[in-house]
Design brief:
Layout lengths: L42 H10 L5 H8 L3 H11 L11 H10 L5 H8 L3 H11 L10 H11 L4 H8 L3 H10 L6 H7 L13 H10 L5 H8 L3 H10 L6 H16 L47 H4 L2
């Protein structure tokens, strides 16, 4: 079955095991000890878990809440217990499925939206028969960039209702790539992602181009992914110059306020819904509220669209 561009495969993150060589990034107790088993939760912690579970990476959310990923899932199983329903699917339920597909397993998705795991699997098969070849809308592309690194192409095909080749072609056009840590975990620790080392000439070229050019254009010129460009620029402490930052700001405003009528489609084109309300009933960006997820760093200390698209 089926968020910084370099990164998922078919298994949901909540069921993945940490690679032996990967440091345990789950939270530590304040005294620096091992991650907490956490058997008692405050109301605020449970509310935070309910809002972000399945949307933020399990390891990051566990670190925020001071527990192991296993304890996080146990708490989520207690928080999400919507009684399963029968009958036709509503639009909100379908969009909820698309939001959490690939981030949670069928059991957890069912608990969140109120359907059985069998009904979840059946609905996925149904959605797979309705895929189209249309290009993604502007809003969908924004969300696609956020999802691409931590969802399999097969999941993305269902999430956005597009044929698999459309997903692959768009990822190539935008110089996106899967998250290396995710790929390692998804393969059970067997796959090791090797990226070609940056040459001295490439680093010099990056230093020349980065201040004034979009990350996407740089990635295309250097034959790298956008995330690779962003990550290396961050390591080198490179910054965009003032003119480029102003241009980015204007582009963001234009994307937000000058979209043609009908381009702001429902569902995958909108922000992922919060777990705290009805599925699909609210909107939030991962950049809003709560600590910034370090996996979505753009190299300039801000979460702008430049990090994803350049």
């Amino acid at each position: 079955m089926i968020g910084n561009p370099e990164d998922q495969t078919a298994e949901p993150p909540s069921t993945l095991k940490r690679h032996p060589d990967e440091p345990d990034t789950s939270s530590r107790q304040e005294n620096g000890g091992a991650p907490s088993e956490k058997t008692e939760w405050t109301a605020d912690e449970l509310a935070h878990l309910k809002q972000w579970y399945g949307i933020r990476d399990d390891l990051f959310l566990a670190r925020e809440l001071g527990c192991k990923p296993e304890a996080l899932r146990d708490a989520a199983l207690g928080v999400f217990n919507a009684p399963p329903k029968d009958g036709p699917w509503t639009e909100e339920e379908t969009e909820g499925l698309r939001t959490y597909l690939g981030a949670c397993d069928a059991e957890m998705i069912g608990r969140i939206i109120g359907r059985t795991p069998a009904a979840i699997e059946t609905r996925i098969v149904e959605l797979a028969t309705t895929l189209v070849d249309n290009a993604l809308t502007v809003d969908e592309v924004v969300r696609f960039k956020r999802f691409y690194g931590t969802r399999s192409d097969e999941d993305l095909s269902i999430i956005f209702g597009r044929r698999l080749q459309v997903i692959k072609d768009l990822a190539a056009e935008l110089c996106l790539s899967k998250d290396k840590v995710f790929l390692r975990r998804a393969s059970g620790g067997e796959a090791k992602t090797k990226m070609p080392r940056w040459t001295a000439a490439e680093l010099d070229r990056l230093r020349d181009l980065y201040p004034a050019m979009s990350n996407l254009d740089i990635a295309q010129e250097l034959g790298r992914s956008v995330k690779s460009v962003v990550s290396k620029a961050h390591n080198l402490r490179l910054k965009k110059d003032k003119a480029r930052l102003q241009q980015m700001g204007r582009q963001n405003v234009r994307l937000r306020y000058e979209r043609p009528d009908g381009d702001s489609a429902r569902g995958p084109s909108n922000s992922a819904p919060s777990n705290s309300g009805s599925v699909g009933g609210g909107s939030h960006q991962e950049s809003g509220g709560g600590p910034k997820d370090p996996s979505r760093r753009d190299g300039e200390g801000t979460q702008s669209s430049e990090a994803q698209s350049g």
